[in-house]
Specification:
single chain; alpha/beta; 6-stranded mixed beta sheet; 6-stranded antiparallel beta sheet; 19 strands; elongated; binds zinc ion; Peptidase_M20/M20A_hydrolases; Amidohydrolase; Peptidase_M20_dimer
Length: 451
């Protein structure tokens, strides 16, 4: 590795903070909070940044925080992100017994990485030397869960959008960011390792309700309209669409029943489903979403039930910027040697996808954990390496982007053509948000007419 005094000083400073960073990760792990509820995590992170002399704005979107160094230098603005929220995985041995929340997606590691970058750059005096500035944002609600809770937050005027980055884009927190970056944990085996250039699916979320008519399930099922049968048919109808999904669109539709009935001796009259419709492109997602709606309505129609489909903009597909990935790779190589996978396609979704449609984004995956994310097997095998290596590689990338007149950073910013402007993006969110109601078929009234 060629001699680079500034990077060396930053890396040493990050190593010197190992205890603090590991403690931060462990503290967040010990108190998992779901999206828009990350009050304790926000306090922890904000407290640390304040103690280290950063200017901190707390609760930027219900929770979350934005930290800036006191010195701000002219030039591009890089934002380093860390997601605050846990996921629900009640089967996990460390899940909160009440909420089922656990950091089984490693977001607590991201926050410690972000703090590591901040502390390393600050201690080495990098903020005064770079031709641009660096912000640190602890962002809420990456996992798209707890719809009812978020609907209430929205009703009360506390949020407009369910996803944390959606909300922060809407609120203008990324208006002045030129490049955003973070590192997400993934099981990559022991030792420092990384996946770069990874793309991800976007998705449209759906809340579905079938309304039938209750009746005694034994004595008079003929008087009822079975909403559970409507839901079952809807699922079969969705399965029948699968052969029409194109391989290149990477469509995934995975509905679940969240309410199947009220009592076993009553014909189910109120049945609820949820689904994501995931895809690699916006038109692909929209095409699959229309087919899913059709399948749901056909299920309802078959048994004479009514249906309501509430579609919500989930996240956009994750896009990559090869030049940014290449720069990260250069900075990761000294730590992980050949253990870098270049290019991967994830069928899962990340709200960094939304931001990646607007500005250049870097979203590598880094190791130090084992087990699949969102499962009971997920665990941190080595908190120190899970945090220190990515913090150094991101800090090194920032130094390369912003030094020498921010030549490299400006080249990436100038060469980037956003897939959407902010106005187009907000338009997409608004038009994807829709409720389709289909009343029960009219044959009931006809029957009454002729009887
Ligand atoms: Zn995650």
């Amino acid at each position: 590795m060629p001699c680079d005094p500034l990077k060396d000083a930053v890396f040493q400073a990050i190593d010197a903070e190992q205890e603090t960073l590991v403690a931060l990760g462990e503290t967040l792990y010990a108190q998992p909070e779901l999206g828009y509820r990350e009050h304790t995590a926000t306090r922890e992170v904000a407290g640390l940044f304040k103690r280290r002399g950063f200017e901190v704005e707390e609760n930027i979107a219900v929770t979350g925080m934005l930290a800036k160094p006191k010195v701000s230098r002219p030039g591009p603005v890089v934002s380093v992100l860390g997601e605050l929220d846990a996921i629900v995985c009640a089967e996990h041995p460390h899940a909160d017994p009440v909420t089922g929340a656990v950091h089984a997606c490693g977001h607590h590691i991201q926050v410690a990485i972000m703090a590591g970058v901040a502390m390393g750059l600050k201690a080495a005096g990098a903020f005064d030397l770079l031709d641009g500035s660096v912000n640190f944002m602890a962002v809420p609600a990456e996992e798209f869960v707890e719809m009812a809770f978020r609907a209430r937050l929205k009703q009360e005027g506390n949020i407009t959008w369910y996803g944390g980055k959606q909300e922060l884009i809407h609120k203008g927190y990324f208006d002045t960011t030129d490049i955003a970056m973070m590192a997400h944990a993934l099981d990559l085996g022991p030792g420092p390792s990384a996946v770069i250039g990874a793309t991800g699916n976007g998705f449209i979320g759906k809340e579905i309700r079938f309304t039938g008519k209750e009746a005694h399930a034994g004595a008079a099922p003929h008087d009822g309209v079975n909403a559970l049968n409507a839901a079952m048919l809807a699922m079969m109808n969705i399965h029948a669409q699968r052969e029409t999904f194109r391989d290149e669109d990477h469509i995934r539709v995975h509905p679940i029943l969240t309410k199947g009935g009220d009592a076993v001796n009553v014909v189910p009259a109120d049945v609820c489903m949820e689904s994501f419709v995931r895809g690699r492109t916006i038109p692909g997602m929209q095409d699959a979403s229309r087919k899913v709606d059709r399948a749901i309505q056909a299920g309802a129609m078959a048994v004479g039930a009514a249906s309501t489909i509430h579609s919500m903009p989930g996240y956009l597909p994750l896009l990559t910027v090869p030049e940014l990935d290449a720069l990260f790779k250069e900075n990761a190589l000294p730590f992980c040697g050949s253990r870098i996978i270049d290019g991967a396609e994830f069928a899962g979704s990340f709200d960094m996808g939304d931001l990646s449609h607007l500005i250049p984004c870097l979203h590598p995956f880094t190791g130090g954990v084992s087990g699949n994310i969102h499962t009971r097997e997920f665990q941190v095998t080595d908190m120190a390496s899970a945090v220190l290596f990515p913090a150094k590689a991101l800090a090194g990338t920032i130094i390369d982007l912003l030094r020498d007149g921010a030549k490299k950073g400006k080249a990436i910013i100038d060469g980037f053509s956003p897939r959407l402007t902010k106005t187009q993006y907000l338009n997409y969110l608004n038009t994807t948000l829709e409720t389709r109601r289909m009343d029960e078929p009219a044959d009931k009234e006809k029957k009454e007419q002729f009887s």
